[in-house]
């Protein structure tokens, strides 16, 4: 069922394990390009597991399995692997392939999944013809990203003075966002009009910052171009998302593919939605024990299967393997104890 176009789409609800996500055609047409960009910017799901960690399949009396070295081959930009389904997919074909096409094998790399591990030639056949569905889908993905790059190109053609102004404006906005996020303060005000005496933390702090810092005074709020102030709620969310991405990237670099423990806390928010915070506990290069919040995710319910799906989706998004989880700790309501025990067992089995 398509999503309601009147609602803002929550990108955090996307499934990054290719074996778990729904068809792109199930989303509302107004949301599809937003979803496509999110998947393209995140990149294909490519868990780097040891050989023995990939499932074995008996094919004609011999055991075969997927090799993560294929990620480094000519398939590196599109190949995705679902360890849970033991299949590989094509990111480009998932995002843009026309399901009404008559070309043979059209569902293999977008919906069903490829697992003929003894016939690597099937991967080559998928991309060989210039007019193949794969290459048509790849071009559409490139065109979609090029729309954003054309904006960057237009920016690069501006004068150095104008580019400096944009840089100072963005730097000020990022400084304010980082302050509010680090302190856990709210961003928005109930009345953000110019006549309001209290426009919310974001606008008020930005205004104070501009008054007390000469180097940004001439570039923000009323001094910025009317259509380039970048203070809208959407712009605020974009900057927060960018801060989150860079923070998680730094945490994963510190983790360096090593083992870690999961610390999970579930709670019922005032918005009447179940939320689950996921923390990684690990030892860094200096042999200090670190605990880092990775994400807060929405879950449909508190069943073991739902919680497992949310955790595994997060791991897939970061190209991490469940086999790297060497400890589990959960905190939730007492009536969830049975589900938590079941969740621990499900993760151990992986």
From TrEMBL:
Leader sequence residues: none
Q: Which Pfam families match?
A: DUF4371
Q: Which residues form the TTF-type domain?
A: 62-157
Domain of life assignment: Eukaryota
InterPro entries per record = DUF4371, Znf_TTF
* Cited SMART domains: ZnF_TTF
What this protein is called in its record is TTF-type domain-containing protein
What organism is recorded for this protein? Solanum commersonii
